[in-house]
Amino acid sequence: LLPLGAFIAAFIIGMVVWLSRRRLSPLGELQIAVRKHEFIVHYQPIVALRTGNCVGAEALVRWRRPDGSLVRPDLFVPLAEESGLIAAITDQIIALVVLDLKKLLVANRSLHIAINLSPADVRTARVLPVIEKALQHTGIQPRQIWLEATERGFVDVGSARSTVIRARELGHAVAIDDFGTGYSSLSHLEGLPLDALKIDKSFIDTIATDSATSSVTPHIIDMAKTLKLKIIAEGVETQAQVDYLMERDVDYGQGWLFAKPMPAAEFMAYCRRAGLP
Ligand code: C2E
Ligand code: CA
Ligand code: CA
Ligand code: CA
């Protein structure tokens, strides 16, 4: 009788929890997720195209629901940005990255992890002291933390510029993400002391096809070189794309051809297999 009673009690509690969550708005659910630290980070390797070595990874957030399912970032990051919850999420990601990869980053000084910043993070520079504090007493060097922000983050050039300058003074590298999809022009970028440019997947997709945008890709590469930026091609899925990129001296690639985003332990194993820089 006792186990049956316990089972019924657990069932009722479960139903109450489920119903109370179900009645919440998406924003209410996200607020709880932030409070309960329901986010995890997966790491997608970034490889040196010439050697195939692993040079680092991009940290990509996922929301792990209490039922164990993972929610993709495009389904909650926009709401988090609109509502301002993104600041708390970014802070949690910074802490997770440091916790997850401390050993690997300390053992190999040339590895880096790129963290995605939202436009608000870039505008306010609020994250910089958060990162500084998270790195204290870890042995991880600031140059092992890269920051990436999309063109949306650089629309307000004045504040973006001071954030980029400050980030680089602290030792971080800064990359412009999803390049080619937004408002940036060459003149826009010239005023920003960036380190790297990530070519958006939509341009990589057109490589080795004859679509109109495929003619844009070489111009993006040339422009990045003129500005002395390191280039990372995102969404690399085929060897034909790698061949094209290597012919044009693009240094780094990231995409399913190499690896999908994965938990920290798997990423460490991947790097050891692929070779470290
Ligand atoms: P993103 O910064 O452009 O990240 C790259 C996305 O492309 C990732 O999707 C990655 O899984 C996916 N991807 C990489 N290689 C390939 C490939 O070869 N083929 C295909 N089809 N997809 C590939 P994910 O993880 O779903 O992230 C989506 C977006 O959510 C990111 O786009 C980024 O804008 C945003 N995001 C992710 N994590 C964070 C975060 O921690 N903070 C913020 N603010 N935004 C984040
Ligand atoms: Ca990114
Ligand atoms: Ca990107
Ligand atoms: Ca992209």
From TrEMBL:
Membrane topology summary: Multi-pass membrane protein
Class of this enzyme: hydrolase
GO cellular component, one term: plasma membrane
Domain EAL: 23-275
Stated name of the protein: cyclic-guanylate-specific phosphodiesterase
Swiss-Prot/TrEMBL keywords: c-di-GMP, Cell membrane, Hydrolase, Membrane, Transmembrane, Transmembrane helix
Top-level lineage group: Bacteria
First-listed, main subcellular location of the protein, grouped into a coarse class: membrane
Organism of derivation: Mesorhizobium muleiense
Membrane-spanning ranges: 1-19
Reactions the enzyme catalyzes: 3',3'-c-di-GMP + H2O = 5'-phosphoguanylyl(3'->5')guanosine + H(+)
EC number of the protein: 3.1.4.52
Annotated compartments: Cell membrane
High-level lineage: Bacteria, Pseudomonadati, Pseudomonadota, Alphaproteobacteria, Hyphomicrobiales
Molecular functions (GO terms): cyclic-guanylate-specific phosphodiesterase activity
